[in-house]
């Protein structure tokens, strides 16, 4: 039986609204949306009296399972402290009926701009328990008289009727019927009188113990991952939060940050970091790292970006292969890597990136994403990559896998890390910036061997030479002058004219090799800032 988890909340005096919203938006809600077999969405509303959250439930029986009940039993200390300062009315609702306009679109499928301010008329009718047939009479009245009267009001999109308590909770002396009517936002509060006029309870007055009607405005749509930087920008540093499993943390400041993870359809957990401008409407730039590195490879560039472009939200994530992959393991493809990014953007409700920047395997992924998801991308910067694989490269990858998996002394992933960084970096970096080389060697050496084995296969057999000619997203190409001892400069010079109808400009970063944004972050910024 489908239904709803319905919660009304009123923070008590003394509880900071920023703390309340940061907890709810970045901890409580996403934790539930990470259970898509139970909750299909999560929406937050407000009126002048308080706040309401509605979660559509696929089957009310799920709310009696340990998967859900343990969420409440294992609350974090912060959640327990916060909820203790909130007056809460929490109800399980069984769905009785649902009617919708042909124009109705599920709210979770709208962008935040489209969803913000949608109107919801919520009504609660508490039934008399001493009048036989009260529930049937009210349901009949709703279907035959009330719902049709509401449905003809301009802007109506959906009406749903629920019963509480849910049958999974057992019998009770008090039963309530709750109705929710969805309207598009242009009708707003100016139509509340029309709505009230349609709310005629006289035919069922004898069955009612009490009734209550509230007009709610939507202001937040949950996704399966925390993303709300706004309240963090106003909280003190003492309000920083780390989850019990240490997989989610929030950092309050004028340039706040959230670190957490997103789970793909095949069960891979992808860590990400969102930071920078706290406005939910701020343009977002995403970074796609190279094979064997982590999202931390962008640290030097992000420091520059936060100083030079404080208007941007900055998203980084660990590309598939950084960590162990789900079983049964399968070789990655560029299409799979592109889909991973689309999943991340969906989870964080980012409908379109201002820009995507990727290097090496991340550069190939960036171009693939521009080709497969042009509607989600404004522009891209693809660095130090090739548009197609070769047999020689494939043989090289197999040799590196064998080295990484070899448990003999002086071999394994640590040996691969040293050889890889020496191959990647410019001689100038290796001699004059030894701390950078050591930092990168340590990062590479911490990569999952299994992840490396299956993700590097994305670079074995791919070819974007023809399809990139149809690229519709503006792009910039960047390469370190010493990458492959200059061979990659020649390769990128050879295909730059075929990126889209007008081709792409190629910028060369001096005294840099395969990772110019790490070896020469200032030089990389100078090469890209005008385009970005």
UniProtKB/TrEMBL annotation:
Pfam families listed in its UniProt record: Abhydrolase_1
AB hydrolase-1 domain: residues covered: 283-406
> Which key words are in the record?
Hydrolase
* Highest taxon listed in the record's lineage: Eukaryota
**Which chain positions lie within coiled-coil regions?**
none
Give TM regions. none
MF (Gene Ontology): hydrolase activity
Q: State the family named in the UniProt similarity comment for this chain.
A: Belongs to the AB hydrolase superfamily.
The name this protein carries in UniProt is Alpha/Beta hydrolase protein
Taxonomic lineage is: Eukaryota, Fungi, Dikarya, Ascomycota, Pezizomycotina
């Amino acid at each position: 039986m489908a239904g709803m988890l319905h919660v009304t909340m009123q923070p008590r005096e003394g509880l900071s609204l920023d703390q309340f919203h940061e907890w709810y938006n970045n901890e409580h809600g996403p934790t539930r949306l990470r259970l898509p077999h139970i909750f299909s969405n999560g929406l937050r509303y407000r009126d002048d009296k308080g706040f309401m959250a509605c979660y559509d439930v696929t089957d009310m029986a799920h709310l009696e399972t340990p998967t859900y009940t343990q969420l409440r039993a294992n609350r974090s200390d912060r959640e327990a402290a916060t909820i203790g300062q909130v007056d809460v009315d929490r109800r399980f609702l069984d769905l009785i009926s649902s009617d919708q306009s042909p124009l109705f679109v599920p709210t979770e499928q709208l962008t935040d701009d489209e969803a913000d301010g949608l109107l919801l008329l919520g009504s609660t009718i508490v039934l008399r328990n001493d009048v036989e047939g009260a529930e049937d009479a009210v349901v009949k009245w709703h279907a035959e008289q009330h719902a049709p009267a509401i449905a003809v009001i301009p802007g109506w999109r959906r009406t749903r009727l629920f019963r509480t308590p849910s049958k999974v909770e057992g019998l009770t002396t008090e039963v309530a019927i709750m109705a929710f009517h969805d309207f598009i936002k242009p009708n707003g509060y100016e139509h509340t009188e029309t709505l009230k006029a349609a709310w005629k309870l006289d035919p069922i007055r004898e069955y009612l113990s009490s009734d209550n009607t509230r007009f709610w405005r939507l202001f937040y749509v949950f996704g399966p991952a925390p993303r709300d930087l706004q309240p963090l920008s106003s909280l003190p540093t003492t309000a920083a939060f780390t989850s019990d499993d240490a997989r989610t943390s929030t950092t309050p400041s004028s340039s706040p940050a959230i670190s957490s993870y997103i789970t793909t359809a095949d069960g891979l957990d992808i860590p990400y970091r969102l930071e920078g401008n706290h406005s939910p409407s701020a343009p977002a730039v995403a970074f796609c790292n190279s094979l064997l590195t982590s999202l931390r490879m962008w640290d030097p560039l992000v420091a520059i970006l936060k100083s030079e472009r404080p208007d941007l939200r900055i998203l980084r994530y660990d590309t598939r292969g950084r960590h162990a992959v789900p079983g049964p393991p399968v070789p990655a493809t560029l299409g799979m890597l592109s889909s991973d990014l689309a999943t991340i953007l969906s989870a964080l409700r980012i409908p379109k990136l201002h820009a995507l920047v990727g290097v090496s395997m991340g550069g190939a992924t960036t171009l693939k994403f521009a080709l497969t998801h042009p509607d989600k991308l404004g522009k891209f910067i693809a660095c130090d990559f090739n548009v197609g694989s070769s047999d020689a490269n494939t043989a090289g990858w197999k040799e590196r896998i064998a080295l990484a998996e070899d448990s003999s002394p002086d071999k394994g992933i640590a040996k691969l890390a040293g050889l890889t960084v020496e191959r990647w970096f410019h001689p100038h970096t290796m001699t004059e910036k030894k701390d950078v080389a050591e930092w990168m060697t340590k990062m590479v050496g911490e990569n999952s061997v299994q992840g490396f084995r299956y993700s590097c296969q994305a670079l074995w057999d791919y070819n974007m030479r023809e399809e990139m000619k149809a690229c519709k997203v503006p792009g910039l190409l960047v390469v370190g002058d010493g990458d492959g001892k200059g061979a990659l400069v020649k390769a990128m010079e050879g295909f730059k004219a075929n990126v889209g109808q007008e081709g792409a400009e190629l910028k060369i970063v001096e005294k840099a090799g395969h990772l110019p944004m790490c070896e020469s972050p200032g030089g990389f910024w100078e090469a890209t800032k005008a385009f970005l």
